[in-house]
Amino acid sequence: MAFELPALPYAYDSLAPFMSAETLEFHHDKHHQAYVTNGNNLLKASGLEGLSLEEVVKQSYGKNAGLFNNAGQHYNHIHFWNWMKKDGGGTKLPGKLQAAIDSDLGGYDKFKADFVAAGTTQFGSGWAWLSVKDGKLEISKTPNGENPLVHGASPILGVDVWEHSYYIDYRNARPKYLEAFVDSLINWDYVLEMYEAATK
């Protein structure tokens, strides 16, 4: 199954001023495209060609670093574009998601503080995550292209803290970018969709 670059689900300038058209053009058209191109080259003769993307990520972890890095980043970015939308973010969550955040994470304010802290304290490149593990929500962080799939969890929300995700717009102010992501960009409907799939 060849990797393909998905189209963005919105116009390049839709997420401004929280994420600029310039950032999206570089991030989607250059960085994500590179993961697709390199991933396809590394997928050839890997023995994993017929598998789903999720399975390629899981089965290449710890065995084929080059393929894992590119497949992981491809998976992460396919969802990252959908985890954002114009006029997103904020505290009006779908009821089922709000109830889970209240019971598993101590409420919205604690979720936001812990999620931003995970992204802020991820040293170097990586991601911060909200995942379902053993039926419960948890917050985590991973280096580089790693994601919760390889730790027995199902990611339902992730934020990219590689510098190319925020440097054009925020320079070195990663916490400011993370606050803007939570307050103004999260597509909670897509998070709910992934939550429902992960808790079936």
Automatic annotation (TrEMBL):
Q: Which SUPFAM superfamilies match?
A: Fe,Mn superoxide dismutase (SOD), C-terminal domain, Fe,Mn superoxide dismutase (SOD), N-terminal domain
Keywords recorded for this protein, A-Z: Iron, Metal-binding, Oxidoreductase
The question of whether ATP-binding is a record keyword is answered with no
Residue ranges occupied by any Manganese/iron superoxide dismutase N-terminal domain in the UniProt entry:
3-84
What the entry lists under Gene3D superfamilies is as follows: Fe,Mn superoxide dismutase (SOD) domain, Iron/manganese superoxide dismutase, C-terminal domain
Domain Manganese/iron superoxide dismutase C-terminal intervals: 95-192
EC number(s) for this protein?
A: 1.15.1.1
Q: Which residues form the signal peptide?
A: none
Role, per record = Destroys radicals which are normally produced within the cells and which are toxic to biological systems.
Q: What is this protein called?
A: Superoxide dismutase
Q: Which organism is it from?
A: Rhizobium rosettiformans
